[in-house]
Design brief:
381 residues, alpha/beta, five-stranded mixed β-sheet, four-stranded mixed β-sheet
Length: 381
Amino acid sequence: MDWKRAGELRERVGDKRFAAEMINRINDPKFDTKEFSLGGLYEALGRPNLGKEKEISNRILKEADFEIQESVDSTMFPKITGSLINRVIQEAYNKAQGMTDALVTVMQSSVRDETIVGFTDDHELMEVPEGIEYTRGAIGEKYHKIRNRKWGRIVPLTEEVIKFDQTGQMMMRAAQVGESASIRKDKEIFDKVLSITESGDYASWRPAGTATALYSATSNDPYTSGTIANEIADVLSDETDLDAAYTAAASFTDEQGEVIMFNPKILLVGAPLRGTANKIINSQSTLIATYNSGVTNPWHNEVQVISSSYVNSLQSATHWYLGDFKKQFIFTEVFPLQTFQAKPGNEKEFDSDVIYQMKARWMGGCGAISNRYVIESTGGS
């Protein structure tokens, strides 16, 4: 970008029009943020006073020194740089987003401790003899709790960064904040999907508001009688191990004892099992060693493979999961990633030569609303 011409443009069209042109250009998807220069903008704006404090000197004063003026730094410079930082944060956040969106259903929330309400329906049809009234079904309420949390970070813009034109460093820090916001969201979701936290308000599964172990050989849903085994110990080596998980889920029933249709869509594994999982799903022929190579693989392209180091780092290298994750896990979003700019005049301006501050934040939570749609295998660990 030619900042000399940018300065000439400002003199020609005025401050407000220049600021609008710059912000529109930054927000244009075709604009390369690497072309931006804090020093260039500073020069184009005529070297404005960046801080609110005034330098004290013993020079001869003039009448104009006592005129009250609206400083250019309180309008144009923060708005233009704020638009740049916002774009860098958002782009880094979107770029860093992993596969977790495929594991949850997003639901808007407006409270700290969200209640996901459902119903236990007495929906089974009964035989109606001639002349006899129909049997009325009862509806009972059930609910699951998901606790929301707010996460955020501040990006400070110092006087030195502007005057020494350290644009690259500023954008790198902003990008790191955006990436960190995405990683924090991934951690929150994997913590619940893998059932790492099993106690307290932030437990993975809180039926009726009580923290309960999600995966177990005797997993207990308080809204049903009896227990289910949604945890197995098969080592993932060929398609028969997926059969074992499918068979375990085939016995699951709902509150009325009706069979649940288990339709797995994702095979979730850690990094060490990525190759094995892809071989099982992508191979047209069986991987069973005792079978002929021409035998068809019944799991070919049946599910999507997602691999993440969170699985092996938070659980173990042998853990794997099969199921319809979106049916089991909800991500409650109070608000998505947002960026804000601090108002001029905060104490950091004077204490630390921080000219402007940008804040990035998001708020949400994740949790299970059922224990019947995902099977966990410890892989023998």
